[in-house]
Amino acid sequence: MRTQIALWARFVPLPKVITAESLVLTVPDKTKRKTKEPFRREKPVQDDVGDMSREANPLGSHIYFYTHITSKRVIYSLYQNLYNNKAMKQVTFMGKKSVPEALRKDHWTPFLTASFTNPSTGLKAFQHLRELRKLHETQWDVELKSKKMKERSKILQDQRGNSIADLAAIIKRDVKEKEKVRVRWMNIYDAEYAKEWPDCVVHDVETQKGIRFHARRMGKFMGDEKEAQITATEAVPQVEEGVKAEAQIEAPKVEGISGVKPEAVPEEPKKSGFAFWR
């Protein structure tokens, strides 16, 4: 008997019934690996995204806002994803190393999606957003001219606040009375960049988790949802059966006796609507 098998036999308990199979040493197979449980992603939340077919969402129904992680530059897109040839036309030169050779998808993240009930209004808003951004980039203040080129380019590239304020102004000017706009935010506190929002805007917060480098595909926005109006109703007291109403106590009439006044009936204390536990 080999020494290894002899040492192994010390720790292996002897079987009750000795057979030919029990005398054969069985060594566990080390080639088999432990099976790991498959990675399961969280299912997306089913909310009011709407019909996501192409027929229901013509060009101009949605505008996707992308921002750079470090410089906070903004790119507007009519599509869910950023396309390099179309998006690079919106990147203007503002100094050294301000224009990359190509867009990196891990540097751009969505922060806002605007959905319009009328696609033609969305196309006009897309055009006006690009025109207003061009004005912000070219028309400088006196203070901005006096600063150095590096500081100036850093200020001009921070377009996140201006894009939100421009969107609120365009919606107030171009959107008609019956039309509505849904603005879905990744961070609802970004809405404070605008001074005021018109009544036709419906604010919403993104519910799906894990959105970082690409926007969520939006569906058709109908805008027919009516807000629930809560009306206060007066509570009607219910009188239980078998309980009689308390009769009013009248003062006794005293006639013919001078100097005698009828006794005043003490009023019952009013019961307050609050009850305290003791």
Estimated helix fraction: 10-25%
Mean pLDDT: 76
* Count of distinct strands: 5
Largest sheet: 5 strands, mixed
Percentage of residues in DSSP E strands: 5-15%
As residue ranges, the low-confidence spans are 226-257, 273-278
**Broad shape:** elongated
Walk me through the structure.
Helix 4 packs across helix 7 (160-174). A 5-stranded mixed β-sheet has the order 2-1-3-4-5. 24% of the residues lie in helices and 11% in strands. By secondary structure, the protein is an alpha+beta fold. The protein has a domain at 62-205.
Short recap of the structure:
The chain is 24% helix and 11% strand. It has 278 residues and is α+β, with helices and mostly antiparallel strands.
Provide the fold topology.
Layout: H1 3-11, H2 20-23, E1 62-68, E2 74-77, H3 84-87, E3 108-116, H4 119-138, H5 142-146, H6 149-157, H7 160-174, E4 181-185, E5 201-205
Parallel strand pairs: 4-5
Antiparallel strand pairs: 1-2, 1-3, 3-4
What distinguishing features does this structure have?
alpha+beta; 278 residues; disordered C terminus; 5-stranded mixed beta sheet; elongated
